[in-house]
C-alpha cells in the first residue's frame, strides 16, 4: 500500500532546505511513499490533508508558523502522522511557538565555537570535531542498532530538552577555558518521541549536505523516517 509523505521546507537558507530534502526524496519514493512538497508550514492547518499524510519530513529553520498551523500539526501527529527531520529544520523551527517546542521535545540553544584565536567570522567558526555516542537504548533501537559511536566535524548542537524523549545518541560539550560553563554538558543528538498515536524523530547532525551524506548520519535519518511514519 502506498503511503503519503509531505515534505515541508523553507526558513533560513543556510541549512539548504531544498537541496537537503532533495537528498532524501529518492529514498522516500523507493520506500513506497507518494511524495508532495510544500514551501509553507500553513499546510499543517489543512485538517483533511494532514489526516491523509503518513509522514511529515520537515526542514524549516527558524521562520514562523501560525497558531492554526501548529495546532494542525500537533493534532495530526497525535492522530498518527509521523514527524521527522534533522538539525535546525526540526529542532530550531518556529521559536515563538511553545506548543511546537513541546511537540518536538528539544530545542536548539547554541553550537559552541572554536577557540577565539581560530574564529574567522563564518560558519566554520562553529565546526568542531566531536563524537556522537550511541546510548544503551540506541544500541537496541531499530534506528541506531549496529551503529557504533562516530566522529563528525560540524556544528555540535547544545539542546534544551525534556524527559519525554527517548535518547538514542548523545554528544558531550567539554569544558573549555574560553567558555563560561564549568562542567561538561551532554545533549541528545538523536531522539524519538511518542505523541498520542504518532511518532517524532529528530537527528541534530545535519547542518550541511556533506554531513547528511555521512554514512552513519544518512543511515540514522533514513531509518528514523521509516520509524516515524504511520
TrEMBL record:
- At the top level, the lineage of the source is Bacteria
**Start and end residues of each ThuA-like domain:** 5-228
Matches recorded under Gene3D superfamilies: 3.40.50.880
**Pfam families found in the cross-reference section:** ThuA
PANTHER family xref list: GALACTOSE-BINDING DOMAIN-LIKE SUPERFAMILY PROTEIN, SECRETED GLYCOSYL HYDROLASE
What protein am I looking at? Answer: ThuA domain-containing protein
Instruction: Record the organism.
Output: Microbacterium yannicii
